[in-house]
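re: the backbone from monday

yeah here it is again, tokenized this time
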């Protein structure tokens, strides 16, 4: 089948394209780099011609509240409209475990709005909720750093390797629409501070990581289990320490 991967040149999208191609599907990356812009609509009609599935793993270029809300509102609206006109039969979107619980953050408000638009579109859909990626430990640290100190909430996290996320998205794309949400997570549960320490150690980053009950996560206050998946989540195979060993 023809699968158009929006955001198909990024960390997750490029892996989804490669995996689908390996299994004999026509996987087409769609991004500004390939002449497709979901914000303006440029190239959408052309790239969606003959597509059975659209996978949206795109992300906002900025996490500033106004920018990220505008990105997901406009991009998702344009994409769903073009899909309806092209007769696409399955829309797959990548989102985040705990989105509905993290509404104190502008980013997660934007992701929730995106999910609501998809559900209301009338197009059969599947939403993949993933936990935080191994690769993003540094970004998390950067968002919570003042001076040389990273301050995070004393909560738990169950991060996942990006390759396992791409595999889950690819499987979902070639399956029947679930018209609901599928959760995926890594096999190990960490304290958030320990995950960030490990992620920084991979990069020989010597910042100090401390906990504070008032610590925020991308601007949102957290409860103990907000970043953890539910009991029915699909658990990936790659352990953090295995991934980290390959980064050195």
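seq for it, each position gets an aa:
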């Amino acid at each position: 089948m023809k699968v158009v991967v929006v955001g198909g040149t990024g960390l997750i999208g490029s892996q989804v394209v490669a995996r689908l191609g390996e299994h004999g599907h026509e996987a087409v990356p769609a991004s500004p780099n390939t002449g497709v812009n979901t914000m303006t609509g440029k190239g959408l009609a052309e790239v969606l011609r003959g597509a059975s599935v659209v996978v949206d793993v795109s992300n906002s270029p900025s996490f500033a509240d106004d920018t990220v809300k505008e990105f997901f509102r406009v991009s998702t609206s344009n994409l769903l409209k073009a899909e309806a006109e092209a007769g696409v039969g399955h829309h797959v979107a990548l989102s985040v475990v705990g989105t509905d619980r993290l509404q104190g953050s502008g980013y997660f408000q934007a992701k929730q709005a995106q999910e609501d638009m998809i559900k209301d579109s009338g197009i059969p859909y599947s939403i993949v909720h993933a936990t935080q990626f191994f690769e993003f430990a540094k970004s998390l640290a950067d968002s919570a750093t003042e001076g040389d100190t990273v301050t995070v909430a004393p909560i738990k996290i169950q991060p996942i390797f990006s390759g396992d996320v791409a595999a889950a998205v690819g499987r979902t794309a070639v399956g029947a629409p679930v018209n609901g949400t599928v959760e995926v997570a890594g096999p190990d549960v960490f304290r958030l501070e320990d995950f960030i320490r490990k992620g920084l150690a991979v990069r020989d980053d010597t910042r100090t990581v401390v906990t504070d009950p008032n610590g925020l996560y991308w601007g949102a206050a957290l409860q103990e289990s907000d970043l953890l998946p539910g009991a029915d989540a699909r658990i990936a195979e790659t352990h953090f320490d295995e991934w980290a060993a390959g980064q050195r």
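Residues 65-86 form the longest helix (22 residues). The longest strand covers residues 90-96.
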